[in-house]
Model the fold of this input.
Amino acid sequence: MILIVSIIAFSSCTNSPSETADALSKEEIARRDSVKRAVMKFVLEEDEKKKAAKRGALLSIEAYNFSHDLIKEHLKAPSTASFPEPNEVKLLSLGDDRYYVDGYVDSQNDFGAMVRTEYECWIYYRQNETVKIENIDFK
Done:
């Protein structure tokens, strides 16, 4: 709704062929330019918000997948590890490229029995694209 109104406001600020720069007052030109800038700023901000949300979603899935590798390092039989789908675990963005994963893994213990181990993992993406583990807790 806001975008439609903004586009209408934007289009109403463009000069019609019958209007010339001489016929418009300096104030009217300034007002129209101001509206055009505001509309463009809004459109660009919305685009950036969408890109940030998409990036956050991708990074949260990457954090979830990365947690698998970390958890496997602590298992007796990592090749038997079975993790749930991302929609079956708690996966949160904590802001500042930090993510929280609360999940579980099914794997074999020393006796070959399948057991479920619940875990929490905090993951941080650094500026240079490396990943840092802040903490892993087994419940």
